[in-house]
Every structure is written in structure tokens, then in C-alpha cells.
């Protein structure tokens, strides 16, 4: 049945609330909360319409708190999904919200049922210590939203302005749940009214988290009770482009509900949250017939493209460029078919030309960059787009670091005749790509460097599985059909000069990779060379490239200007 995952998730959430009602959250309960959150997100992604409908369908047998907590989790998962938050981050935010509610059950009931604000609501130092030790940084970051769980935000000035994205999502989910869930102290409002209220009052930096909700679930959310033009009551099951799929409500019938598509303009009235005894009616509405009928309805779950398969268009462009007989008009047409590639090529050509004249056509961009450089740029852009498909806290930091390191490598390549700027910058992109593929780094909020060997890929992040930073980028090099020399250079990364292979181009690649990483760390983190191995390597690189400190300073200033990198704020 389509509703099995929903019923199981609701039961799991209720069980966790019962377990910790009288006990502080400890290590075992954290494990339990994590498992519940993982199952919740998995079930949500399989049937989002059913989950999104639940805040508008109050289950009277389950009581206020169970309904409210579940509704908060639904809106947290919904906001994360629509804002393309990485699944691992979403799981930790769900765990965070569930833990916050578990700790404050009595206060929440008094606040919403009796309108009594708690005298104090301190943070759990013990819980934060456990989270810190387990490196659950996204959860720990979101937890600090506890300060505003009992606040009412009626104007834009009343919202806290310094919250992180994680804390904003927690607070927005909590606010949506509190506005649509019926309680004794106030009447609920419909989802469309709650969303309008938030959009009109939240500060500008919150609004991005809500943008995706305007497309789905839109102002006519699944679960809404509506009156049609013939005054027939109906429940919205799914959203189509300009219609909604509804089940006609006939109180005298116990059979299969009649499903029909209705133009949104023909809906006369939308009601607030409806009360049901339990899940039996929900199972009747979202049944097998609904699964068959919803094929053309909106699917809000956006799947990511696989990292191990480069875009088909990129392979076609590379094949065309390698054919030896390039037709620039045909090549421009190919690139134009992918807006992300076309826009990037035109933007970079505009920035690069001396007079900063706007480049309007891909063909002109190709002529300015040249085929080799354009090919390299498209590979790098395609890779970064694939690596950045979903948001995680350190995403922008990693992206800006890669752009800076790649530009440094391109500038270094001008110091020798063995390596082109395009080859050098593409090598650096793939060498740093492991930062984006580590599950352990998806939920970190602080970039912790290892200072052992500043030229080594494996020291770009100080965590337990550092070797995977190198192994993952090697797999990507192979999957994206990059030259075998790139992989050889990455494997030999960090070796001292006397340990390097004699082949000039390979040796140059290895030295360029190591020095670019070391210099990028120096400028991005204001990091000094901290130990003898790194200092020895740096000295050998200066000798190899025939550089002095003044040359390095000039190279870094030029690289920073050309890369347009910035240090992303937390």
C-alpha cells in the first residue's frame, strides 16, 4: 500500500517521543533518532504527496503533540528537498528537530494548548558534547534554533537575522507546523495562508528556502479540502501543471473514491486543517488507483545525475573537437543546446576580454577562448555542476578553493613548456573533487585542515578516511575519460623531487599539482608553511619552476584576480 511508509514513520516518531518524555537524550536515543530520521526521509521521497498532505489532516486519536512533531518533520523534509539540500544534511536536520521536540514536550504542549510560554529553555550541554564528539556538526548547528521555538514572528523585524541556513530551515519548518496544526489556543490556518504569512514577514536571507514551495506544494497543497464549482467537497491528492488530482468525498459511500482532474480556477474554496480519527480514510484516498492516476502529476523529488557519467553533450563536444575538422557553427549549436554550458562560456569570455564587452553568442566565446581552452573550461564547469547538485554547508568553500587552485595551476604552467594552462587547471579540478564526494564531509560546518603535508590531496581535510580524498578523484578521472597522466600525477602527489618519475611532462604535472595546493591553502586560509616536509617541498618547487618569493606573490595576486574566488562566510 502507498501509505505503509507513512504509517510506519508516524508510529516511529510517536514511539521516540514516548521513550524520551522523562529522560534526557543520550547516546542510545541519538542512535534511535537517527534511524527514525533516515526511515522518515526515505519514505518521504517515495511518496511525497502523502507526507505533505498530513499536516492538513489532523489525526485526533494521536493527540496534539504527535501530530505537531510529525508535521514539523514533514515541513523540514519538504523545505530541504525543494532547496536541494543534500540528503545527509537533511537527515541530520530531521534528527535535530526531532531531538529538540523530544526534549521540550511538556513546554510545547503548554505553549500551544494553554498559551503558556516556558520560563526558561536552556540548551542541553551534554547533548551538544555528544554531537560534537560524533562530528554531527549540521545537527549541532541546527540545534541552536532552540532559542526561538517559543517565539512568535509577526513582522520581519522580529526574526533573528544572524541564523545559519540550517537554523533557518529548522525555524521555518517549526513555524509552518505551528500555524497549520490545530490546538486549543488558536485556530489553524490553511497551508496557503501560512506560506503567504511567512513569505511576507521573513527577512530576505530566509526567502530562498521558501522559493521552491511556490512550485510544490504550491498554494493548493495535497491534503487540502476544497469545494468545487458544483459545490462537491473533494480532497487534493496530487498537483498537476494547471490542474489538481482530487478524490470526490461522498459521505454515503464506502467504496473506491472517484478521482478526477480539476482546473485550479474551478476551485471555489479551500478549507483549513481537517480532523480524521486515524489513517483509514487516508489509506482509501491514496490507494492503488491514485498511484495509477498520478503519472502526469508533479514529482517534487529531483534526482541527481550520476557522478560517474559525464554529460552526454560534453562527450559529443569532445568527440567533435578531437575529430581534427571542427565546424565552429555546428560546435556552437551543440553547446547552445545546454544553457549551463552556453551561459558559462559567454560569461567567462565577457570577463576575459580586455574591454569587458558583453559576449552575446557562443560562437564569439569559442573564438575568444580557442578550442582547447573552451574544451577544458566546459569539462571543469560540467564537473563542478555535477559535484554541486545538492547543497551542503561547505559546498561554496570547496568550490571557491578549487577555482583558486585551478587558476594558480594554470598560471604556474606558463613557467614551463611541458604543460598547458588548460591541462593544469583541469588536473587540479579533478584532484580536488574528492572533497565533494565524501559522505563524512557533507554535514561538516567547519573546514578542518591537516597541516602534515600541505601539498598533499589527502591533507585537504583532517578526518578519518583521508585516503578516500585521493581514491575518489582517481575514480572520477577514469569515469570522465581523462588522460592517464592525470591519474599518475594524482597517485604521485606529494612526493619529493628526488622520488619523482623522470618523464618531464609527468614530473611537471606532479610538481604543479602539489605547489598549487600548497599556495592555494596559503592564500585561501592565510596559512603559513608549518613543518619541514612542506617547507622542503616548497623549496624544491621554487627551484624547479625557477621562482622566487616575489614571483610567487605576483602569481598569487594574479590568480586571485582571475579566479574571482571569495571566502564563503559560515
Quick overview:
This protein is mostly helical. It contains 26 helices and seven strands. It has helices spanning 4-19, 27-46, 48-53, 63-82, 87-103, 105-114, 125-133, 137-143, 165-180, 191-201, 204-211, 280-285, 288-293, 312-321, 328-336, 339-352, 362-369, 371-387, 395-413, 421-432, 434-437, 468-479, 484-491, 504-525, 532-545, 549-563; strands spanning 57-59, 225-227, 233-239, 243-248, 259-263, 269-270, 274-276.
Structure commentary:
The chain is mainly alpha-helical and 570 residues long. 55% of the residues lie in helices and 5% in strands. It has helices at residues 4-19, 27-46, 48-53, 63-82, 87-103, 105-114, 125-133, 137-143, 165-180, 191-201, 204-211, 280-285, 288-293, 312-321, 328-336, 339-352, 362-369, 371-387, 395-413, 421-432, 434-437, 468-479, 484-491, 504-525, 532-545, 549-563; strands at 57-59, 225-227, 233-239, 243-248, 259-263, 269-270, 274-276. The strands form 2 sheets. Strands 5-4-3-2-6 form a 5-stranded antiparallel β-sheet. Strands 1-7 form a two-stranded parallel sheet. Helix 5 (87-103) packs across helix 9. The longest helix has 22 residues, at 504-525. The model has no long low-confidence stretch (mean pLDDT 89).
Give the assembly state of these chains.
single chain
In DSSP terms, counting alpha (H) and pi (I) runs of 4 or more, how many helices? 26
Fraction of residues in H or I helices: 55-70%
Main sheet attributes: strand count, strand direction, barrel closure: 5 strands, antiparallel
Decide which structural class fits the backbone.
mainly alpha
Averaging pLDDT over every residue, what do you get?
89
C-alpha end-to-end distance: 43 Å
Amino acid at each position: 500500500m502507498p501509505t505503509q511508509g507513512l504509517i510506519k514513520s508516524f508510529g516511529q516518531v510517536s514511539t521516540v517521543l514516548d521513550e524520551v518524555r522523562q529522560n534526557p537524550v543520550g547516546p542510545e536515543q541519538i542512535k534511535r533518532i537517527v534511524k527514525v530520521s533516515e526511515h522518515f526521509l526515505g519514505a518521504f521521497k517515495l511518496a511525497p504527496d502523502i507526507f505533505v498532505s498530513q499536516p492538513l489532516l489532523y489525526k485526533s486519536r494521536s493527540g496534539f503533540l504527535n501530530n505537531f512533531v510529525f508535521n514539523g518533520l514533514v515541513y523540514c523534509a519538504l523545505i530541504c528537498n525543494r532547496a536541494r539540500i543534500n540528503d545527509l544534511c537533511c537527515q541530520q536536520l530531521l534528527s535535530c528537530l526531532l531531538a529538540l521536540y523530544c526534549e521540550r514536550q511538556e513546554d510545547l504542549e503548554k505553549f500551544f494548548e494553554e498559551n503558556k510560554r516556558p520560563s526558561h529553555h536552556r540548551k542541553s550541554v551534554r547533548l551538544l558534547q555528544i554531537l560534537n564528539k560524533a562530528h554531527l556538526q549540521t545537527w549541532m548547528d541546527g540545534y541552536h534554533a532552540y532559542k526561538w521555538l517559543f517565539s512568535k514572528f509577526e513582522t520581519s523585524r522580529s526574526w533573528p537575522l544572524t541564523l545559519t541556513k540550517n537554523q533557518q530551515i529548522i525555524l521555518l519548518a517549526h513555524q509552518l507546523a505551528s500555524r497549520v496544526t490545530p490546538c486549543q489556543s488558536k485556530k489553524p490556518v490553511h497551508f496557503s495562508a501560512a506560506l503567504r504569512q511567512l513569505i511576507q514577514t521573513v527577512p530576505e536571507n530566509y526567502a530562498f528556502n521558501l522559493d521552491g514551495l511556490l512550485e510544490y506544494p504550491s498554494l493548493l497543497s495535497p491534503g487540502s479540502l476544497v469545494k468545487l464549482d458544483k459545490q462537491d467537497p473533494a480532497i487534493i491528492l496530487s498537483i498537476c501543471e494547471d490542474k489538481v488530482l482530487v478524490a470526490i468525498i461522498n459521505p454515503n459511500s464506502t467504496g473506491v473514491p472517484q478521482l478526477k482532474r480539476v482546473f485550479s480556477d474551478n476551485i471555489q474554496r479551500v478549507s483549513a486543517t481537517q480532523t480524521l480519527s486515524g489513517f483509514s480514510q487516508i489509506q482509501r484516498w491514496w490507494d492503488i488507483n491514485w498511484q495509477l492516476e498520478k503519472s502526469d502529476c508533479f514529482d517534487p523529488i529531483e534526482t541527481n545525475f550520476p557522478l560517474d557519467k559525464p554529460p552526454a553533450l560534453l562527450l559529443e563536444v569532445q568527440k567533435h573537437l578531437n575529430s581534427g575538422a571542427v565546424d565552429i557553427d555546428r560546435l556552437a549549436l551543440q553547446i547552445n543546446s545546454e544553457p549551463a554550458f552556453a551561459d558559462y562560456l559567454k560569461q567567462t569570455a565577457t570577463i576575459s576580454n580586455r574591454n569587458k564587452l558583453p559576449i552575446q553568442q557562443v560562437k564569439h566565446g569559442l573564438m575568444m577562448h580557442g578550442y582547447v581552452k573552451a574544451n577544458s573550461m566546459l569539462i571543469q564547469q560540467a564537473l563542478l555542476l555535477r559535484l554541486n547538485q545538492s547543497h551542503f554547508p561547505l559546498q561554496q568553500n570547496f568550490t571557491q578553493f578549487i577555482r583558486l587552485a585551478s587558476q594558480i595551476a594554470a598560471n604556474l604552467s606558463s613557467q614551463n613548456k611541458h604543460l598547458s594552462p588548460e591541462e593544469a587547471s583541469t588536473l587540479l579540478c579533478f584532484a580536488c573533487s574528492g572533497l565533494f564526494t565524501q559522505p563524512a564531509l557533507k554535514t561538516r560546518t567547519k573546514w578542518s585542515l591537516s597541516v602534515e603535508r600541505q601539498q598533499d590531496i589527502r591533507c585537504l581535510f583532517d578526518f578519518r578516511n583521508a585516503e578516500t580524498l585521493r581514491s575518489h578523484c582517481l575514480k572520477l578521472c577514469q569515469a570522465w575519460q581523462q588522460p592517464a597522466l592525470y591519474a599518475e600525477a594524482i597517485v604521485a602527489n606529494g612526493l619529493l623531487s628526488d622520488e619523482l618519475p623522470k618523464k618531464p611532462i609527468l614530473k611537471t604535472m606532479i610538481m604543479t599539482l602539489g605547489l598549487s595546493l600548497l599556495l592555494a591553502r596559503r592564500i585561501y586560509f592565510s596559512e603559513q608553511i608549518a613543518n619541514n616536509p612542506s617547507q622542503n617541498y616548497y623549496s624544491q618547487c621554487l627551484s624547479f619552476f625557477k621562482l622566487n618569493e616575489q614571483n610567487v606573490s605576483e602569481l598569487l595576486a594574479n590568480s586571485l584576480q582571475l579566479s574571482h574566488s571569495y571566502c564563503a562566510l559560515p
